[in-house]
Specification:
Layout: E1 11-13, E2 23-27, H1 31-41, E3 45-58, E4 62-76, E5 83-97, E6 115-117, E7 121-123, H2 124-135, H3 169-181
Parallel strand pairs: 5-6
Antiparallel strand pairs: 1-7, 2-3, 3-4, 4-5
Length: 183
């Protein structure tokens, strides 16, 4: 059993961030770090990954993170488990607010932009991994992979098929019988 390396980190202490100019960052993990991220996300491989952006101060205490995610990923096909490569490019944006207040109502309206409470440190790698997880295709399929119909039933009884479950299947059968009787 091989030991997967720990996930990388790129923390920025909020108290140390400049409040008048942006702090730029570029996260480009090495092969071992990409392997750890791939393992965490259940990927077959992560041949390329970068998360490049900046932390822009807003006002005296808030920060806005913007970044561009670019990745080459290999996921297992949901039908055959065959490798399915994909190229991803996504823009990320997060607002960190010093005076963040959770909505108190049970059915509060979700704000248009991602806002979060301002933490003591912002770990760019954690944001990058979350952004990658959200950008992944949810149901990757290999070319030509189709989910067949599973048909089961006890011996001697004809099993139900998907077409039999169609609400109009009975009407088609009834119409056929009426035609046979000449009605």
């Amino acid at each position: 059993m091989t030991d997967t390396p720990a996930l990388p980190r790129m923390p920025f202490r909020v108290a140390s961030l400049p409040t008048r100019k942006p702090t730029r960052f570029a996260f480009r993990p090495n092969a071992d770090e990409r392997a750890a991220i791939a393992d965490t996300l259940g990927l077959i491989g992560l041949p390329d990954f970068s998360f490049v952006g900046q932390l822009q101060p807003e006002g005296r205490h808030d920060f806005h993170l913007t970044a561009t995610l670019v990745a080459e990923v290999v996921q297992p096909c949901v039908v055959t488990l065959a490798p399915v490569p994909a190229s991803l490019r996504d823009e990320s944006s997060r607002h960190y607010l010093a005076n963040y207040a959770d909505p108190e109502e049970a059915e509060a309206e979700i704000p248009e932009e991602d806002t979060e409470p301002l933490p003591e440190e912002i770990d760019v790698v954690q944001v990058a991994i979350e952004a990658l997880a959200l950008a992944l295709p949810p149901f990757p399929r290999a070319a030509g992979a189709e989910l067949g119909e599973a048909v089961f039933g006890p011996p001697g009884i004809e099993p139900l098929r998907q077409a039999d479950l169609n609400p109009f299947a009975g009407l088609a059968s009834l119409a056929g019988k009426l035609k046979e009787k000449g009605e």
